[in-house]
Amino acid sequence: MNPSLALMATLIAPLLAAALLVHMRSKGLARAALQARLRVLVPASALKPQREGPLRRLGDLLARTPLIGSAEVTLLRQNLYAAGMVSPGAVDTFIGLKILLSGLLVMLVLLWLQWSPDPPSALIGTAVALGAALIGLRGPDFVVARRAAARRDLIDRGLPDALDLLVVCAEAGVGIELGLERVAREMKDVHPELASELAVTVSEMRLLSDRLQGLFNMGERVQLESVRSIASTLSQTLRYGTPLGRALRTLTADFRLVRQTQMEERAARLPVIITVPMIVFILPATTLVVAGPAFLQLVGALQKM
Questions:
Q1: What is the separation, in whole angstroms, between the first and last Cα of the chain?
Q2: Which residue range(s) make up the domain with 217?
Q3: Which of 12, 55, 203, 305 has the fewest CB atoms below 10 angstroms from its CB?
Q4: Same domain? 161 vs 230
């Protein structure tokens, strides 16, 4: 080897190693600063790195293929978040679970066709296998949709109390961010779902450059018209400087009017709902009690004749 090249390599290698060490150290310090900032806003359990299981790896592999698609992944992420599944790998794990469940159901159908003493025709067996695969793929979506609807109902129930507390905070001179944070802290035990959404909204308002984007994201996450109305009212208050207490009082009055209308609608539907149980259970018993003695007397009179 050329002595000059060897000398040059001997001089450059330590410099490259030192530059790489400085770069890695600066990157580690930046990451540590970011984690320290996030630790103030979110619980420490949310910052712990999660181990990737086989379901998550399978879902991640399938999510990158055209078989799933980016639109389906986005829809799944919205539905899972609406159902309260907010972990980073929830979408990948859910996709892997759907594929695994579909495969297990198809295997059970194939075993049943193999070991059945009187197996059906090939067309019926294929239809049953396809039905099992469809159930495995769409069954978890139905469960997630039901859970998301139940969570939205819980959030909707806690909105009037949250608005009342926010009105008190606004009239006391507290800003929107501090007011939302105080409401989330006070409602943590009574309405934990709504409290978690308000906490996430406060964190986004503090982290994002545009505070209005945090309010808009809250309406898109929950997918409730009432939450979108609150987000729109708070956004207009921040944008145009309108009095927060007056706007919240108007919104609270509108919510109470909507709740009263919904209760009146339920009360109006109650007679129609009660009609079927009355016909099925009460009417036969009443007919037996009223017409039973007369029927027995008629049978006795006919026997005497």
A1: 134
A2: 154-260
A3: 305
A4: yes
User: pLDDT of 45-86, one tens digit each?
Assistant: 444 445 566 666 766 676 666 667 677 777 777 778 778 777
Q: Which amino acid is at 230?
A: I
- Is residue 238 one of the residues assigned to a domain? yes
DSSP 3-state assignment of 67? Answer: coil
How many C-beta neighbours within 10 Å does residue 248 have? 23
Residues 87 and 131 placed together within one structural domain of the fold: yes
Sequence-distant (≥ 6) Cβ neighbours of residue 51 within 8 angstroms: none
Backbone angles phi, psi at 87, to 5 degrees: -70, 155
What is the per-residue pLDDT across 190-214, written as a single tens digit (0 to 9) for each?
Answer: 888 888 888 888 888 888 878 788 8
Residue 25 has pLDDT above 80, yes or no: no
95 and 177, same domain (yes or no): no
- C-alpha 91/C-alpha 87 separation (Å) is 9
Is residue 162 located within the same domain as residue 256?
A: yes
Report d(CA 124, CA 212) in Å as an integer: 56
3-state helix, strand, coil in the chain (%, to 5): 85, 0, 15
Tell me, yes or no, whether 46 lies in a domain: no
Two structure tokens written together for 9: 């390599």
For the record, the structure tokens of 170 come out as: 């606004």
